[in-house]
Design goal:
Blueprint: E1 2-3, E2 10-11, H1 23-62, H2 66-94, H3 96-115, H4 120-136, H5 139-147, H6 153-157, H7 159-178, H8 183-192, H9 195-204, H10 212-217, H11 221-231, H12 235-248, H13 267-277, H14 281-299, H15 302-316, H16 321-345, H17 351-377, H18 384-403, H19 405-416, H20 422-451, H21 453-474, H22 483-486, E3 496-497, E4 503-504
Antiparallel strand pairs: 1-2, 3-4
Keywords: Coiled coil, Membrane, Sugar transport, Symport, Transmembrane, Transmembrane helix, Transport
Subcellular location: Membrane
Main location: membrane
Length: 508
């Protein structure tokens, strides 16, 4: 690497970057890497969204019962536990980038099996493999957070949720466009189309850098320096950031070796001891925060709207399949176009303000939807204004979700976890997310048959209200702070010793 005193440019010799890179170009490189990584989230959204409409045709083609459809639709979230609980271990072992490559392969195989299935068993096999891919998608916000510039981290980590919703929308669009094909062919093509972005992700990972923070904890300081130089505005910024990462990883800041030896045998044991067995008060608070925010994201009922919106709109008075799928597609569109609001504002007004606004809006919208559905249940005839109230309630709900809990739950979780514990800690959060999601989606039909569909949404409204209170009381702001600085937000660190031997105590 060479630095020009006059132009402040950095010349790089990496094979993927043949020309000199200036600061703005490096920002584009970080953004491009985040976009490629987000394709794994797009695949997650597509495979969930495609099932929303495909279940109508699967039920008719294979003559399945409501219970079988309910299980088939929701079980993928429990299957995803196999992925989310191993994704942290995999990403710590083979790297964040290689884990994304593995995710692409899984997303290729799963939908392919579903597309060629002729019975319930093989669809379940394909959905099991797809569920593992959904679990592995947890690595997306971890990777993006670790390669993003501080000033753009909120924006870029929100790309993952935007990609999920673009995937959902594409799934809804495929439902709508393929609905007029034969019942035997339509649902198969809906899942087969999901193979295309899996191939693009696999090739895209070849051009992405490895996470510099993962390289540091593996002792590859020289490669970490090279990656940071390609991602930051100047060589000085890269050196400063590398020093902060080394300090967080327990490596002396003045170490100049390109490769250092890092003990391998005790890594898993020490991670789980620090995270679960013997956590410090600050780590315990961080973990509880991550688990709680992931719980509230799913327990507030978002996937009942994502997966069962045709049924919800049918209860509101709509009849034809094309109308139901069209309304579902509209909900997906509103949810997708709302996310850029969070992406733009998260680095300006902050994560906490958006989360408070989003959860409060979700609670109010769910009450509106519940009232509309309650009126429908008590009315002998379908009235247009009631249908409009229900549609507005759904659209308002998904838009508030998309400016708050949607993009920011995983982004916030990725930010607050300490470097050494980040992959495993976020994976535990994802496990909580998928467990709750699976329970909610697999019990929704039974729940609304027991307490009415209006009562179900009143219940979700209460949980959204609790989420608002939790965010207001428990979540500090992370806007404008480096990942290393954020570690001090959740409690007092033990006394640390700097290189000069002086004692330093950091507190909130």
């Amino acid at each position: 690497m060479e630095k020009s005193d006059s132009s402040k440019e950095i010349t790089l010799t990496h094979p993927l970057l043949k020309s000199d890179l200036k600061g703005p170009c490096k920002t584009k490189y970080a953004v491009l890497s985040a976009i490629i990584a987000s394709m794994a989230s797009l695949l997650m959204g597509y495979n969930i969204g495609a099932m929303s409409g495909a279940q109508i045709f699967i039920k008719d083609d294979l003559h399945l019962t409501d219970t079988e459809i309910e299980i088939l639709t929701g079980i993928v979230n429990l299957y995803s536990l196999a992925g989310s609980l191993t994704a942290g271990w995999t990403s710590d072992r083979i790297g964040r980038r290689n884990t994304l490559t593995l995710t692409a392969i899984i997303y290729f195989v799963g939908p392919l099996i579903v597309s060629f299935s002729n019975n319930y068993f093989w669809i379940m096999v394909g959905r099991f493999i797809t569920g593992i891919g959904i679990g592995y998608s947890v690595i997306v916000p971890v990777y993006i957070a670790e390669v993003s510039p501080v000033t753009m981290r909120g924006f870029l980590t929100s790309l993952a949720e935007l990609a999920v919703n673009i995937g959902l929308l594409l799934g809804y669009i495929s439902n709508f466009l393929l609905a007029d094909l034969s019942v035997h062919l339509s649902w198969r093509l809906m899942f087969a189309l999901g193979i295309v972005p899996a191939v693009l992700l696999g090739f895209g990972t070849l051009f992405m850098p490895e996470s510099p923070r993962w390289l540091v904890i593996k002792g590859q300081l020289g490669k970490a320096q090279e990656v940071l130089t390609r991602l930051t505005a100047s060589l000085e910024d890269a050196k400063t950031q590398l020093g902060e990462i080394k300090e967080t990883a327990g490596i002396p800041k003045d170490s100049t070796a390109e490769v250092i030896s890092v003990p391998k045998q005790s890594h898993d044991k020490s991670v789980w001891e620090e995270l679960i067995m013997k956590p410090t008060p600050s780590v315990c608070r961080i973990l509880m925060t991550v688990l709680a925010i992931q719980f509230f994201q799913q327990a507030s009922g978002i996937d009942t709207v994502v997966l069962y919106s045709p049924r919800v709109f049918e209860k509101a008075g709509m009849k034809s399949n094309s109308t139901l799928l069209g309304a579902t597609m509209a909900a997906g569109l509103v949810r997708t176009i709302s996310i850029p609001v969070a992406m733009i504002l998260s680095d300006r007004v902050g994560r906490r303000s958006l989360l408070i606004t989003g959860t409060a809006g979700m609670a109010a919208s769910l009450v509106m939807l519940g009232l509309g559905l309650q009126i429908v249940d008590g009315s002998a005839t379908n009235q247009t204004w009631i249908v409009v109230v229900c549609i507005v309630g759904v659209l308002s709900y998904v838009s508030f979700f998309s400016i708050g809990l949607g993009p920011l739950a995983m982004a916030y979780s990725s930010e607050i976890m300490p470097l050494k514990l980040r992959a495993q800690g976020v994976a535990l959060g994802m496990a909580m997310n998928r467990i709750v999601c699976g329970i909610v989606t697999m019990t929704f039909i039974s729940l609304y048959e027991a307490i009415t569909i209006a009562g179900s949404f009143y219940l979700y409204a209460g949980i959204a209200g609790m989420a608002c209170v939790f965010v207001y009381i428990c979540l500090p702001e992370t806007k404008g702070r480096s990942l290393e600085e954020i570690e001090v937000l959740f409690g007092k660190r033990e006394k640390e010793t700097e290189g000069n031997g002086k004692s330093l105590e950091v507190s909130v």
